[in-house]
């Protein structure tokens, strides 16, 4: 034994090392590996769950946006329908008001025409009555000469009244002239 190597010791150490390695393998490596595998699976499951929830959230968001767009479109459609309905109602009311105004104007024209015709008839009646009354008065007078005499008498009376006033005015005029000289 030149190097002082004992093969038995080496083999014994080797056997101890193998036993130690097998014991550590069984006691530490397998449980740690099992724990690490569980942990990896747990994280993978959490990642998968997170991805699933994320995709569900994106789907819900897309559905929400679609519903929102549909609601906006429906609101716009209802607003347009309401506007059309209001415009139609306003046009209907305007037409009804125009028809009513036309009827009122037509009735007013008819009433005015009736009133005018009535006024013309009444005026004609009055003229006819006055003409017949004047004719009666003339016819009742016995003769034309009497009427002429009455006319002349009335004219003389009028002339006397005017003449008296003229005479008074003439008398006053010379006095004014005499007093001034």
Automatic annotation (TrEMBL):
<comment type="subunit">
    <text>F-type ATPases have 2 components, F(1) - the catalytic core - and F(0) - the membrane proton channel. F(1) has five subunits: alpha(3), beta(3), gamma(1), delta(1), epsilon(1). F(0) has three main subunits: a(1), b(2) and c(10-14). The alpha and beta chains form an alternating ring which encloses part of the gamma chain. F(1) is attached to F(0) by a central stalk formed by the gamma and epsilon chains, while a peripheral stalk is formed by the delta and b chains.</text>
</comment>
<dbReference type="GO" id="GO:0046961">
    <property type="term" value="F:proton-transporting ATPase activity, rotational mechanism"/>
</dbReference>
<keyword id="KW-0812">Transmembrane</keyword>
<dbReference type="GO" id="GO:0005886">
    <property type="term" value="C:plasma membrane"/>
</dbReference>
<dbReference type="GO" id="GO:0012505">
    <property type="term" value="C:endomembrane system"/>
</dbReference>
<dbReference type="InterPro" id="IPR002146">
    <property type="entry name" value="ATP_synth_b/b'su_bac/chlpt"/>
</dbReference>
<protein>
    <recommendedName>
        <fullName>ATP synthase subunit b</fullName>
    </recommendedName>
</protein>
<feature type="compositionally biased region" description="Basic and acidic residues">
    <location>
        <begin position="158"/>
        <end position="181"/>
    </location>
</feature>
<comment type="similarity">
    <text>Belongs to the ATPase B chain family.</text>
</comment>
<dbReference type="InterPro" id="IPR050059">
    <property type="entry name" value="ATP_synthase_B_chain"/>
</dbReference>
<feature type="coiled-coil region">
    <location>
        <begin position="33"/>
        <end position="133"/>
    </location>
</feature>
<feature type="transmembrane region" description="Helical">
    <location>
        <begin position="12"/>
        <end position="29"/>
    </location>
</feature>
<keyword id="KW-0175">Coiled coil</keyword>
<keyword id="KW-0472">Membrane</keyword>
<keyword id="KW-1133">Transmembrane helix</keyword>
<keyword id="KW-0375">Hydrogen ion transport</keyword>
<keyword id="KW-0406">Ion transport</keyword>
<keyword id="KW-0066">ATP synthesis</keyword>
<dbReference type="Pfam" id="PF00430">
    <property type="entry name" value="ATP-synt_B"/>
</dbReference>
<keyword id="KW-0138">CF(0)</keyword>
<dbReference type="GO" id="GO:0045259">
    <property type="term" value="C:proton-transporting ATP synthase complex"/>
</dbReference>
<keyword id="KW-1003">Cell membrane</keyword>
<dbReference type="GO" id="GO:0046933">
    <property type="term" value="F:proton-transporting ATP synthase activity, rotational mechanism"/>
</dbReference>
<comment type="function">
    <text>Component of the F(0) channel, it forms part of the peripheral stalk, linking F(1) to F(0).</text>
</comment>
<feature type="region of interest" description="Disordered">
    <location>
        <begin position="152"/>
        <end position="181"/>
    </location>
</feature>
<comment type="function">
    <text>F(1)F(0) ATP synthase produces ATP from ADP in the presence of a proton or sodium gradient. F-type ATPases consist of two structural domains, F(1) containing the extramembraneous catalytic core and F(0) containing the membrane proton channel, linked together by a central stalk and a peripheral stalk. During catalysis, ATP synthesis in the catalytic domain of F(1) is coupled via a rotary mechanism of the central stalk subunits to proton translocation.</text>
</comment>
<keyword id="KW-0813">Transport</keyword>
């Amino acid at each position: 034994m030149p190097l002082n190597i004992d093969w038995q010791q080496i083999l014994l150490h080797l056997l101890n090392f193998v036993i130690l390695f097998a014991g550590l393998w069984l006691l530490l490596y397998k449980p740690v590996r099992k724990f690490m595998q569980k942990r990896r699976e747990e994280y993978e499951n959490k990642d998968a769950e997170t991805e699933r929830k994320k995709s569900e959230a994106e789907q819900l968001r897309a559905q929400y946006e679609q519903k929102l767009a549909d609601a906006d479109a429906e609101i716009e459609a209802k607003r347009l329908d309401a506007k059309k309905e209001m415009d139609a109602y306003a046009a209907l009311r305007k037409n009804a008001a125009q028809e009513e105004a036309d009827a009122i104007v037509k009735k007013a024209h008819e009433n005015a025409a009736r009133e005018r015709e009535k006024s013309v008839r009444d005026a004609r009646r009055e003229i006819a009555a006055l003409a017949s009354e004047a004719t009666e008065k003339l016819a009742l007078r016995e003769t034309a000469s009497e009427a002429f005499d009455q006319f002349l008498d009335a004219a003389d009376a009028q002339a006397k009244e005017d003449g008296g006033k003229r005479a008074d005015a003439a008398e006053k005029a010379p006095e004014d002239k005499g007093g001034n000289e």
